[in-house]
């Protein structure tokens, strides 16, 4: 039976970890992408009979994350996932300051993790059909 895939970024601590624990349900696959994996989450998933995958992946390198996701999805059996949800919980907050006093590298990092990474993580799910419109791949 097809499963629902949930991709959760920033899932190793805080609010992301709390969301990950709530999403551990049979019939669902949870893919957690964080700079570091959570040590006990795999045991919790096994106890509940859930499918969990954790990746140590820094979203400051969004191209690597998107390519890894694309390759992982291509290896998945056809029809395994009926639907998918991306929850982008990861984030970088630069020092709060007027734009004129902000460090450009800090702003670029915040945009890379908060905007560029989720956009690139969505890309593997979309393929152009012959009509030129877009459709979900899973």
SSE order and pairing:
Elements: E1 3-9, H1 14-22, E2 28-34, H2 41-48, E3 51-56, H3 62-75, E4 81-88, H4 104-122, E5 126-127, E6 135-136
Parallel strand pairs: 1-2, 1-4, 2-3
Antiparallel strand pairs: 5-6
Helix pairs in contact: 3-4
Give a structural overview.
The chain is an alpha/beta fold and 138 residues long. The chain has helices at 14-22, 41-48, 62-75, 104-122; strands at 3-9, 28-34, 51-56, 81-88, 126-127, 135-136. The model has no long low-confidence stretch (mean pLDDT 90). Helix 3 packs parallel to helix 4 (104-122). The chain has one domain (3-136): NAD(P)-binding Rossmann-like Domain (Rossmann fold, 3-Layer(aba) Sandwich), CATH 3.40.50.720. The strands form 2 sheets. A 4-stranded parallel β-sheet has the order 3-2-1-4, sandwiched between helices. A two-stranded antiparallel ribbon has the order 5-6. The longest helix has 19 residues, at 104-122.
């Amino acid at each position: 039976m097809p499963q629902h895939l949930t991709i959760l970024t920033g899932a190793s601590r805080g609010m992301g970890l709390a969301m990950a624990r709530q999403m551990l349900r049979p019939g669902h696959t949870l893919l957690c992408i964080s700079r570091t994996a959570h040590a006990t989450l795999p045991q919790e998933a096994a106890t509940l009979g859930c499918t969990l995958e954790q990746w140590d992946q820094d979203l400051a390198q969004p191209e690597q994350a998107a390519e890894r996701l694309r390759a992982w999805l291509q290896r998945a059996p056809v029809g395994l996932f009926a639907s998918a949800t991306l929850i982008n919980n990861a984030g970088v907050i630069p020092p709060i300051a007027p734009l004129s006093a902000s460090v450009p590298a800090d702003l670029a990092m915040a945009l890379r993790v908060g905007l560029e990474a989720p956009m690139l993580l969505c890309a593997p799910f979309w393929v152009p059909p012959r009509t030129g419109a877009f459709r979900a791949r899973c």
